[in-house]
């Protein structure tokens, strides 16, 4: 038998971009939470029992009957024209300014690819969405964090920062932010758009949860304010990303980007190199569900998440010890917990898992480190009984860490 050749040094052969890639802390925790006895507040998963399974079945049959083999064929990179037209009409922009993506994560990755050069300054919230950091990191940005409070990004701090810092891009989740659940208030939205426009900073508005408001009044999107500021869809410095994953079903992986024509043009080229196009059948199925099923599904999901958020907040007030702070979301899927100084939520996770409850430690959501005493809780996919037991177990865990 010929002796086995030594394996190449694969690590040495990796690109610099690959070396900058990191694993998702959330995905690693989700591996643990697959155990049936673990109550998970970790993953931001839509509630599967609310998925419109029968409606998707009927839509699939209708699409295959109407389109036949065309539903199973390659399609254009830009996306299924009726789907783009529907999105464009809702936003009051041409369909040509809409690019369909295979999930919002692809949108963030391709936006990073076409916008970020190594060393570019990218402004992010502190904390910010971990998936965006993962998407942008391989392209070598220099992150600068923006302080946040219950009103969202501190735009006074942004104004001072832009006097001395030349930034390429600002990334924000203004509605029910992941991870904090906070919402950027209306006054700050307008100032943010005006400041970034004045200083020539592009804005990526990531809005997967905007339709899931269960209390309070909606504010204009940054994209809408950007249109007002620019006066022309192709002069708008705000780029808008959204998805059908949180409002309809995540498994179809249909999302989109609204942007000025030069950016859409480059996204088309980047997507051609990534996956050619989002699956044709999936886009057609989503289009079939837009007018009737989607509005009803949004109402169903809003009601359920609102009830679960209220239940979790009620139990937190009862079960968590004094000195613990938490946000009160007006929509979406998450709330944010700040523990007393000195408690490390990453180290505490092992104790929580021993009580069969999981969460996501907060530190991975900070681009420049910190946040060791924070955690993200998701209420979207937990039952009332799991919320009651899980919050009680977390309360015991936190009290134990304080001792």
Automatic annotation (TrEMBL):
Required cofactor(s): pyridoxal 5'-phosphate
Zinc-finger found in the keyword field: no
Keywords carried by this UniProt record: Aminotransferase, Pyridoxal phosphate, Transferase
Molecular function in Gene Ontology: pyridoxal phosphate binding; transaminase activity
Pfam families according to UniProt: Aminotran_1_2
EC number: 2.6.1.-
Subunit structure: Homodimer.
The name this protein goes by in its record: 2-aminoadipate transaminase
